[in-house]
Amino acid sequence: MFIAAVIYLAMVLNVAISPLDNTLNSIYGLLIAYAIVRHQLMDISVIIKKTLVFAGLLASVFAILILPTLIIQEYLLRGAGFKGRMIGLTISGIIIILTMRRIENFLINITDKYLFQKKYDYKELLKTFTAEVLTVLNLDRLVDLTIDKLSDIIKLISAAVLLFDDDKQEFKIAASQGIKDPSLTLIRPDGIVTFLEQTHGYLLRKELVEKKIFIPDTIKDIMDKLNAELIIPMVLHEEVIGVLSLGKKKSDEDYSQDDLDILLPLARTLAIAISNAKLFAELGKTQAEAAQREKMAVIGTLSAGINHEICNPLGIARGQCEAFLLNIKDGLYKDKSQEDLLKKAQEIMTKVIKETDRATAITKKLSGFAKPAKGEAEMINIDKEVDEVLGLVGYELKLEKIEVEKRIEQGLPSIFVDRKQLQEVLFNLIRNAGQAIGEKGKITVIAKQEKNTISIDIKDTGSGIPQEKIRELFNPFFTTKEPGKGTGLGLFIVRQVVEKNGGRIYLKETKVGEGTTFTLEFPASVSQEARVRA
Fold it and tell me: Do residues 231 and 243 touch, judged by C-beta distance below 8 A?
């Protein structure tokens, strides 16, 4: 580059440097040839674009450098003749020598940053995937992160992850960016699926073209719809569970062997991460089903206990009606006027309605609580929901002679959660607190606001939790209850439900023999509209 600059400068200043010019041009040509071979710059479209842009920038910079020399020659050394031109040339040469490397680096950086994307760092790709992507257990989040990070680090025009759907027996796009057909699905009769499953090998468009390998139109069509240059199968235990599709690089560079050496193992590791995420989701589903079965068993127990609560109002209603009819039959009301009898009947009917409403409310709570949650969030009043739950579990606690105290801060803001799921969480924690007490004790439900957070404490005077078991509390299938009295699903699922509703749960304090306090925290909400705007 320096040699070219000197020749260009000499031409501008009309200085003859023959016979060195031919020699320098030859050396320059050899250096260019070496650079092409050394840096694999054989893609002529990339060479032309980079050369034109770089040459334009270089000419602009050198014009700025040469301008002072021309001014010096024109105004300060006008009468100096050849000597003046040599002095000007010397000054320009010194300026170029001192600034050439900095100018070159500056131009390379500008060219790469604004006109061509830099070659990505393999270490950055591996580090990012190890730390931020492969540890994610939510499947949707995992595939979205995969596309985002690959596109950002490698500078891709397009990318897609297709996952195999066991139910429909097809590959569906789980996440994508820049592809032509996001609704594309691949089935086993497709040639591309057959190739991937039989060979576990990759498809690289340029490689297929260079080797003159026949590409069926169906495969061409799929690659076009995915806007793909490179397709890699994600293989786990000899089974293709997904497909990774990568489009062109924004730098116009081809996928090299170095790229394949890093992307092929990455796809295999990604297959493991996807499998783990699927297993975790399946585990969550299984646990949710088990929790629902456990809840139904609890409902059966509660129904037996609440039977008295239901039968009592119904018995009162029946007794009122029977007494009225017997009194009429025995003639106790024969001295009463029709107006008095009507008034008496109205009083009895009012009592009957009140007692039947009471029984109906209890049965509605039971049936409503038994239904699975829909996952629909709404504005919830904590005071009201605590009352609903205590109405279900309260009778069981009374039988165990457990006192319940409710301390809800006045004017507490609502929270935006699923009503049914919040009831289930409160029910689980309050019932666990009652079981920890056994007989005779106290449960305190405290709700208050701290800045923009609503906290709910469930405090009991039970047996407490041993220090060595605290770390395992929220693990699946862990329980402190006696064998046969619990599945260990409670706190694990409670945490999942709470986090799904934007909150968190933690053990606030516990002491063996004195009791335990669990705390729920949710963001305070003034209104649903305010939450949506936020």
Answer: yes
